[in-house]
Amino acid sequence: MTHGDLPAPRASGEAPGHGYHERGAGVSRGRPLRIEPLVDRTGLRVIGEVDLSGWDVWRSSLASVTGAADPVDDVHLDLTALRFIDTEGVSILVRAAGRLGEERKIVLYEPPAVFHWITELLWPDHPLDVQAAPA
Amino acid sequence: MTETADAGTSTVGADPFTHPALLYKGADEYLAGTVPFVTGGLAADEPVAVAAPTPKLTLLRRELGRAAEDVRLLDITEAGAHPGRVVPGLLRAFADTHPGRQVRIVGEAILPDRAAGDYPDCVQHEALINLAFAGRPVTILCPYDAEHLDQQVLADAARTHPVLVDADGSRRSPDYVPERAVTGHDLPLAAPLLADVLTVGATELSSLRRFAQDYAVRVGLDARRQVELVLVVTELATNGIEHGGGLATVALYADREQLVCQVSDTGRPVPPDPAGAGGSTIPRQFRGHGLLMVNHLADLVRVHSSPEGTVVRARFTL
Predict the structure, then answer these.
(1) 0.80 cut: is pTM over it?
(2) How much is the pLDDT for A120?
(3) Closest in A21, A53, A87 to B203, CB measured
(4) Burial class, B45, CB count within 10 angstroms (exposed 0-12 / middle 13-18 / buried 19+)
């Protein structure tokens, strides 16, 4: 499940960042979003930026991973290489979590700072489980 | 003025959101309008918040006595540097902490001593309240000092509030057209001569973010404000691209005091949505979470719509 062709993962050894700038420069052309399945558990690694150009891919990837998973599994999203997400991107994520039901949840690892600002204002009671770093 | 208490429970149309303006003269009328609204909410076990300047909070505290302890009192002279933060930040956050419950809020954001230059922005924010809360079970009573505010301000209150309350009681506002207040105050926003300008489409937002990031660094925004500008620019350009013809032109310029981000779309204006809040005709650009976010992060936001398209200008104080 690879989308786009311009991955720009954070350089190894770089200190964990909390802002767009700290996460390095963006990708200048083409789709800035790449999404890969996790190998060791149900979930996705999200690399790059979620904006208007990637909403459809983001939505269908989340629908696919939440729908195809074993109904008892939580869904893990490694966001350590996600440099930016806009309000609609967060809205898509919150809606996907809302569809999972009470038995399962979406676990986010290290979302960027904008994720926190957006949810604090617009979805303060979101059901997403936010954690510091992938285990 | 017993009818005033009813302002909290009467609704216009099917929208559970109610937004009456209280036109008061003097402290007695202020209290007669606000206290029954507050105590009526408490009696119905509804969460109640009051966002007001310090003297009004003192007045209300004294009048409410111990009941004031059950009210969330927010000092807008401290909490909100400008109404744009009051609207989504304080009010919506308060409402959102009580999902599914009927909530009452008293919000006084337009004050006689506010600088005249800020006034058009204040009106826009009042109109934006209607959009931010449409469909939610929330009542926001907005007191207006009818003795000291200009007639123009009171006329605008009638445009931005579907219900008017004064010493004579509560009535439906005949002039309620919130989008007129949103756009009617806009002088055309002049195109800046010395701006950094970039026009982008849907697949170029990443480049736009780098452009904004570089500009923010150059003018000395701190790290957090840099990220805020990047988000604001993205949201405004996304709106422009989606609703205004597929391209958005972003101009960034700054002087010693402020950084201005102006985003123009190049297409025709969006046809009004007939199913809009209160049955009004509000451009779709004003809906959605993106603009709420922009309104929250920027220091002032102004919108100008014309047959050539829509221009949104967001200002960041340096």
Answers:
(1) no
(2) 86
(3) A53
(4) exposed
Whose structure tokens read 């420069």? Answer: A25
Which residues touch B199 (CB under 8 Å, ≥6 apart)? B247, B248, B249, B250, B266
What does the radius of gyration of chain A's CA atoms come to, in whole angstroms?
14
Residue A51: which H helix or E strand, with range?
Answer: none
pLDDT tens column, B241-257: 987 778 999 999 887 78
Please give the C-alpha separations between residue B203 and each of A52, A84, B234, B312, in angstroms, as whole numbers: 8, 15, 12, 21
Angle of helix B288-297 relative to helix B223-243, nearest 10 degrees, comes to 150
CB atoms within 10 A of CB B15: 18
Tokens 């390095």, residue located:
A24
Cβ contact (<8 Å) for A20 and B230? yes
Structure tokens at A13: 């050894």
Q: Is residue B15 over pLDDT 60?
A: yes
Mutant choice from B227, B242, B263, B291 vs A, greatest count of A C-beta within 10 A: B227
DSSP B85-143: HIIIIIIIHHHHTSTTS-EEEEE----TTS-GGGHHHHHHHHHHHHHHHTTSSEEEEEE
Q: How far apart are CA A43 and CA A36, in angstroms?
A: 9
Closest in B209, B213, B293 to A121, CB measured: B293
Q: Do A124 and B93 touch (CB under 8 A)?
A: yes
Q: How confident is the model at residue B315 (pLDDT cuts 50, 70, 90)?
A: confident
Extended beta strands in B146-266, E state = 163-166, 169-172, 196-200, 248-254, 258-265
A113-133: average pLDDT: 88
Rg (CA), chain B: 20
What's the DSSP call for residue A11?
P
CA–CA separation, B239 vs B244, rounded Å? 8
- Supply the pLDDT for residue A26: 39
Residues B268-310 have pLDDT tens digits of 544 444 433 333 333 444 446 787 888 888 877 777 777 777 7
pLDDT per residue as tens digits for the range B115-161: 555 555 566 666 666 666 767 788 999 999 999 988 888 888 887 78
Collapsing DSSP to helix, strand or coil, B246 comes out as coil
More confident: B39 or B189: B39
